[in-house]
């Protein structure tokens, strides 16, 4: 997982535009609601907080909603989640009634915090393309394997998918929350994570910087054949996140990268890197170690730049294990 600094000016500016553009839209939709508990609950302060709150505060809005609107409650909600997982033909009559009741309520909320048919739509005045352009994250935040560049001209061609860290199917209030929209590849968003229920106590969140104990490593399986291994504590947030996104299984498709790095280690010594450093700095004294490693190994050296190129985190960890990291 690549961490995104919420205090990076780029992130701050993206968040500001996100709130400035979406707040009046959501506010107008709430204004058109009939008078009642939901309309009272979604006051201006609440709307702004839902759009802007940090990740570890977001789930509070969902809990507050369950406690503030007449006719719904936490216990019923838990029963609804259980019933929703069952096929309709296997539900009891009470379970079917509960599903109908909460589906109607959630659909009403989806029309307010509208992702599909609203924010996701290319023709919207402010859309997922604008957020992707403002964030400018070039690789999947979860796996750091696949480019997720945004191409807008001429007709909004491609962009990263936005994973809802708290699934929008269960937390529709958070469908447009800035810190709930994680730029990712299709595999991590749909094929792997899907609707896995996450929480900040048990899983890593890209916008919550932490000192993590997670390093890519490898085992020698046979001559010139290597297997990926990710070192981490167990149990831990790191372990849970690796399992949820099937990181080890997915990285197994990149075994050839280990072969390449081991071969480069044999070809490039530390002395070679020092000579390359001296050569480049004789031409440009501002050349950084990050640029030197990018030229030599096709990966970034600085953690802050991992999102710019696929596999940067993995390559740096393996290179460090091979003794190829200059401090």
Characterization of the model:
The protein folds into two domains: 183 residues, no CATH class; 109 residues, no CATH class. Helix 1 runs antiparallel to helix 3 and helix 5 packs across helix 6. Strand 3 and strand 4 form a beta hairpin. Helix content is 50%, strand content 8%. The two termini are 23 Å apart. The strands form two sheets. The protein has a two-stranded antiparallel ribbon with strand order 1-2. It has a two-stranded antiparallel sheet with strand order 3-4. It has 327 residues and is mostly helical.
Secondary structure elements and their pairing?
Elements: H1 9-31, H2 37-41, H3 44-52, H4 55-68, H5 74-85, H6 93-112, H7 115-119, H8 128-135, E1 161-164, E2 181-184, H9 186-193, E3 214-222, E4 225-232, H10 237-244, H11 247-251, H12 255-267, H13 270-283, H14 289-297, H15 312-321
């Amino acid at each position: 997982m690549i961490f995104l600094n919420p205090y990076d000016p780029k992130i701050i500016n993206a968040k500001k535009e996100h709130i400035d553009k979406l707040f009046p839209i959501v506010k107008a939709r709430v204004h058109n609601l009939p008078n009642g508990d939901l309309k009272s609950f979604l006051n201006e302060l609440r709307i702004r907080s839902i759009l802007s709150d940090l990740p570890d505060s977001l789930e509070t809005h969902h809990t507050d909603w369950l406690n503030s609107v007449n006719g719904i409650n936490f216990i019923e909600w838990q029963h609804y989640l259980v019933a929703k997982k069952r096929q309709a033909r296997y539900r009891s009559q009470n379970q079917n009634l509960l599903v109908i009741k909460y589906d109607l309520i959630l659909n009403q909320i989806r029309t307010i915090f509208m992702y599909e048919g609203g924010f996701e739509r290319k023709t919207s005045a402010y859309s997922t393309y604008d957020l992707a352009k403002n964030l400018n994250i070039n690789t999947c935040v979860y796996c750091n394997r696949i480019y997720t560049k945004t191409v807008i001209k001429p007709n909004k061609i491609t962009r990263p998918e936005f994973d809802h860290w708290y699934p929008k199917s269960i937390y529709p209030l958070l469908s447009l929350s800035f810190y709930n929209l994680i730029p990712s590849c299709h595999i991590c968003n749909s094929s792997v994570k899907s609707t896995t229920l996450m929480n900040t106590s048990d899983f890593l969140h890209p916008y919550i910087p932490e000192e993590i104990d997670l390093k890519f490593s490898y085992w020698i399986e046979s001559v010139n054949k290597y297997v990926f291994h990710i070192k981490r504590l167990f149990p831990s947030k790191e372990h849970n996140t690796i399992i949820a996104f099937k990181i080890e299984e997915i990285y197994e498709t990149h075994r050839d990268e280990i072969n390449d790095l081991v071969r480069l280690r044999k070809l490039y010594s530390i002395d070679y890197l020092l000579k390359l450093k001296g050569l480049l700095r004789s031409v440009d004294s501002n050349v950084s170690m990050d640029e030197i490693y990018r030229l030599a190994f096709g990966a970034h050296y600085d953690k802050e730049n991992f999102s710019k190129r696929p596999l940067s985190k993995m390559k740096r960890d393996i290179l460090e294990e091979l003794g190829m990291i200059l401090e």
